[in-house]
TrEMBL record:
The lineage of its organism: Bacteria, Pseudomonadati, Planctomycetota, Phycisphaerae, Tepidisphaerales. Residues 4-92 form the Core-binding (CB) domain. PANTHER family: PHAGE INTEGRASE-RELATED, TYROSINE RECOMBINASE XERC. It comes from Humisphaera borealis. This is Tyrosine-type recombinase/integrase. InterPro entries: CB, DNA_brk_join_enz, Integrase-like_cat_sf, Integrase_catalytic, Integrase_recombinase_N, Integrase_SAM-like_N, Tyrosine_recombinase_XerCD.
Length: 327
């Protein structure tokens, strides 16, 4: 009976609540996987307890299990806690759970994970990457267009794969993408990106407005995984000593704009971030750039001279003041 309840609640949450919120299929699938993993833990460790009898202590025990037994990091654990919190909040909202029975209602706040600075490519590395696809083959033109679009706009791999022919307006130099939560936004195109996309479109030939813009060898739309594979391939061919992915190109796009003086609000809108907080990480990247620039200042070449100018003996004010004699 308990397993039936778990099945019903998880299906209700993912297929009704998450779909109504407009979440992407990949996001919904990730939520379903996380909830199923928690259910499996309950079946083994908590004697198959039903979801309406889970306590905050049970959830804490599961998170500790993820940390010690599964070796999950802080980000993964925080994400799991957030999924469980949203799951139980939805069950309360849909009338399947009393508010006082919500195990996540008074759940303690977890320590936020240490935010790592994003890995970005240098301008020279980007150039090598863009030049890696051959320019004399149909696949090479397509792949060069994909790389130029990812770096030139900062769109996600899923957004790139989801582009239809009608979404790409080269005369107006813009594309229309569907981001997280189904939100649409228009992204302007640099003239150099327009040239690369135009070359690919001419070579590819006419397609229907609803067809995918980027086509596979068999004339089908490219998947998100295929976009990742293309980027990985040319990163290897370019011999770039970094772990490169479409998301790293997204980081590179934003970081290079910050270095050129573009304000964060504009970059937020280009990236499709719903909060400026997500964009502020790129300020930390430029702070690292400033420190690196300070280290390169030519005063470092004069260090020896400066040392020679410093006195070798203590100056008067460096001596401790004499003690007053008492008695």
């Amino acid at each position: 009976m308990n397993s039936i309840t778990w099945d019903y609640w998880i299906c209700l949450y993912t297929q009704t609540h998450c779909v109504a919120r407009g979440l992407r299929p990949l996001t919904i699938a990730a939520y379903r996987t996380a909830l199923r993993q928690f259910e499996s833990y309950v079946q083994v460790k908590l004697e198959g307890r039903s979801p309406d009898r889970i306590t905050a202590a049970d959830v804490l025990g599961y998170l500790e299990h993820l940390r010690t037994e599964r070796k999950n990091g802080d980000s993964s654990i925080n994400r799991t806690a957030t999924i469980l919190k949203n799951f139980y909040r939805a069950m309360v909202g849909m009338g399947h759970l009393e508010p006082r029975a919500n195990p996540m209602a008074q759940f303690p706040r977890l320590r936020p994970p240490t935010r790592k600075l994003p890995v970005v490519l240098s301008s020279e590395e980007v150039q090598r990457l863009l030049e890696a696809p051959p320019g004399d083959t149909a696949i090479g033109l397509r792949d060069r267009a994909i790389l130029a679009l990812l770096y030139g706009t900062g769109i996600r791999a899923s957004e790139c794969a989801g582009l239809n022919e009608a979404d790409v307006d080269l005369s107006e130099r813009e594309i229309r993408v569907r981001g997280k939560g189904g939100h649409e936004r228009s992204v302007p195109l640099n003239s150099s990106v327009v040239e690369v996309l135009t070359s690919y479109r001419q070579q590819r030939g006419e397609v229907e407005p609803r067809d995918r813009f980027f086509q596979s060898r068999r004339g089908q739309g490219m998947s998100r995984g295929a976009i990742y594979e293309r980027v990985k391939k040319y990163a290897r061919l370019s011999r770039i000593p970094k772990e490169i992915s479409p998301h790293k190109l997204r980081h590179t796009f934003a970081t290079h704009l910050v270095r050129r003086g573009v304000d964060l609000v504009t970059i937020r809108d280009l990236l499709g971030h719903r909060s400026i907080t997500s964009t502020q990480v790129y300020l930390h990247v430029t702070a690292e750039d400033l420190r690196a620039a300070a280290d390169q200042h030519p005063i470092g070449d004069l260090a020896g001279l400066l040392k020679n100018l410093l006195p070798q003996t203590k100056l008067p004010f460096q001596h401790a003041p004499p003690r007053r004699q008492t008695g």
